[in-house]
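Postdoc handover notes: sequence design on the structure in folder B. Input tokens:
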């Protein structure tokens, strides 16, 4: 069944007023897609959808036969839902840009979005920090469900948005939330250990990322891969027959980073070579890895066809990225610095701490936790990394969800006796800031831009940035 034939087949028999995969949200005339969930089977909610006057049911459960309304069987209901949503909501945008990777995809997406805005382009963004058209829309998923994406794209189209930047998570790609979307520009920042609770092994994780380039990139589309990433040989092998693939930080490029020099703890100079000409850029209070993300965004847009010189006027004026090594402020009494970062993987935490060490002449402090019902293997690794790079470590609760928060903390700590264990995150932040001395630096890691803490399935208001600012002002 082709991507549009399902809706066409249904529309010949019933009137379609909408698409839904949540029986609680079904309205009269909606087609209900009974998703085969990882925790719940959507087939169990078919009768509820019928009571709410759905016009038809789409399922991959062959046991579902006759019902009071039409039932359509498909091999892959997730894929069918995505194609149907993008078709029904007519969500085609001329310039679609996707960014994937373990770390940095939010930053690169955000930076591309703001560079395009500086170039006076009408641009929207969909991702972790939120969806933006002209207003902010709350989002808790890196890659939302296809119906939400389709509706957002439709609104963007109505507002004459010409460019959309979107984060493509491994979950979203594996669950086929992007089927029906074809991207003009696809970027990979890096790949390292993450989400193995879902993907089971690293190869599956890598394969899910590569779906973006193998299945969702237009024939005429441009692919950008960061050469300095793990598994680059495997990635090149997978993409060996793909056209228009460019490797950032490759010696063969006409866009070369000649030098990144730290003049002071807060001042960095970048020298670039483009078409045999040298260019210099100056950055203050910007961590090195964020500069690298900015250069990747720059390179990607140049390869996509934008003017190197026009972008050069914009890159030192992009705003601070929420929750990405975000400078919160100084401690009132002694000028110690406090940053908040989203680092929640071993690789991200290591990079943040290495960079933070370069930004301080005092002691380096870190506070973090790990989410519950998520990859347990990374907890011990992150505990070891924190002790290796920081002078002082406090482990606290992140989003424990349905797990025992005490056990999560203990798994992180392991045998590291030097780690301080404080369950209450606000108290932990207060303790961390109060112990800072002159020239010290604190990184509050793990939650970044999030403004909530998930305990069981309840979202409690909690904002690392807001709390840290208040405590800095009082300390």
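Designed sequence:
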């Amino acid at each position: 069944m082709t991507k549009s034939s399902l809706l066409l087949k249904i529309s010949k028999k019933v009137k379609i007023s909408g698409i839904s995969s949540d029986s609680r949200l079904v309205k009269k005339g909606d087609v209900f897609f009974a998703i085969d969930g990882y925790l719940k089977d959507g087939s169990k909610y078919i009768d509820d959808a019928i009571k709410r006057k759905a016009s038809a049911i789409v399922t991959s459960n062959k046991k579902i036969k006759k019902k009071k309304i039409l039932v359509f069987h498909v091999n892959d209901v997730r894929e069918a839902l995505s194609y149907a949503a993008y078709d029904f909501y007519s969500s085609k945008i001329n310039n679609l840009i996707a960014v994937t990777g373990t770390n940095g995809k939010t930053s690169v997406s955000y930076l591309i979005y703001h560079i395009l805005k500086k170039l006076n382009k009408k641009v929207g963004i969909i991702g972790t920090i939120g969806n933006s058209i002209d207003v902010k829309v709350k989002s808790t998923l890196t890659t939302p469900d296809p119906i939400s994406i389709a509706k957002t794209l439709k609104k963007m189209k109505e507002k004459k948005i010409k460019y959309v930047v979107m984060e493509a998570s491994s979950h979203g790609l594996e669950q086929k939330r992007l089927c029906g979307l074809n991207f003009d520009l696809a970027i990979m920042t890096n790949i390292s250990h993450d989400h193995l609770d879902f993907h089971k092994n690293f190869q599956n994780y890598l394969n899910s990322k590569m779906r973006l380039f193998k299945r969702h990139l237009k024939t005429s589309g441009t692919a950008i891969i960061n050469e300095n990433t793990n598994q680059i040989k495997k990635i090149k092998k997978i993409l060996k027959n793909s056209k228009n693939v460019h490797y950032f930080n490759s010696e063969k490029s006409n866009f070369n980073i000649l030098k990144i020099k730290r003049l002071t703890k807060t001042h960095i100079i970048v020298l670039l070579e483009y078409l045999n000409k040298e260019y210099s850029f100056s950055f203050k209070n910007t961590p090195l890895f964020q500069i690298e993300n900015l250069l990747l965004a720059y390179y990607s847009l140049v390869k996509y066809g934008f003017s190197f010189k026009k972008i050069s006027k914009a890159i030192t004026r992009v705003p601070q990225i929420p929750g990405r090594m975000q400078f919160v402020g100084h401690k009132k009494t002694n000028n110690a610095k406090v940053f908040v970062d989203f680092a929640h993987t071993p690789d991200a935490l290591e990079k943040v701490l290495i960079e933070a060490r370069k930004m301080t002449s005092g002691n380096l402090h870190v506070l973090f936790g790990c989410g519950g019902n998520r990859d347990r293997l990374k907890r011990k690794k992150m505990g070891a990394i924190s002790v290796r790079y920081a002078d002082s470590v406090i482990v606290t609760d992140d989003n424990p969800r349905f797990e025992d928060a005490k056990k999560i903390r203990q798994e992180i700590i392991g045998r590291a006796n030097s780690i301080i264990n404080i369950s209450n995150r606000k108290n932990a932040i207060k303790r961390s800031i109060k112990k800072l001395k002159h020239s010290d630096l604190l990184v509050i890691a793990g939650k970044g831009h999030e403004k909530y803490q998930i305990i069981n399935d309840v979202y409690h208001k909690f904002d690392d940035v807001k709390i840290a600012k208040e405590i800095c002002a009082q300390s």
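Context for whoever picks this up: The radius of gyration is 24 Å. Don't rerun without checking with the PI first.
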